[in-house]
Amino acid sequence: MPIDEGVIKFDASQFVETAALDDASISEINPIRCTLYEKKLIGEYRDLNIGYGNISQRMRQPSQFSGVLSNVKPNPLQAQFIISGTQTGYLDTLTGRHYTCVASVDLQGNTLQCQGPIMASSESLTHGAIYLCNDTINAVIHIHNKTIWQGMLKDKLKHTPSHIPYGTFEMAQAVQLVVAKQSYGSLAMAGHEDGVMFYGESLQTAFSLCMDMFERYTAS
Ligand SMILES: [Zn+2]
Predict the structure, then answer these.
(1) The pLDDT of residue 32 is above 80
(2) pTM score, whole prediction
(3) N or C: at which end does the chain have fewer Cβ atoms within 10 angstroms?
(4) Is residue 107 part of a domain?
């Protein structure tokens, strides 16, 4: 089974490499990422050496524009977020060295501006697309879980079409169609095996939606 995962498909040439992010920038996101890792919703396909799953938080608080990110200009019209770095899924504990900042995204141009100690996750464009739908969305979680993914598709819950692969402009467009103007929700990516997205006004909301699906499909 080919797994289409982890390969960066956007233009990453505008990456500005810095030292680690401040602890203040990741104080909310890191504990939730840790729990998702413990539940194997973020992790690694060991046999393939490919990490999966990622998490992001919109930059709203002044404390997030600190340290190596203090030169990032807040732009409420853009999708600006802190996201786990590419190929970090295998790590049980992340630090400021494993998160990075996406300062802007251009969905149509398939480019994003990234600044931090590590390149942004390969699914950053999809995160950006969700933030651009509604400015009350402040967190996005992308997990992999076969049981949840299959269950959501079987139950015809919200999903993107099966012919659309992850990390592309087509996926960004498809996700925006599903999210529309909602401030929170979940969707399965039929064309991205095991892939599910959750988003909400806060990290806690997105995480709760994720745990609801986890209990619904994996508890029995
Ligand atoms: Zn994925």
Answers:
(1) yes
(2) 0.95
(3) N
(4) yes
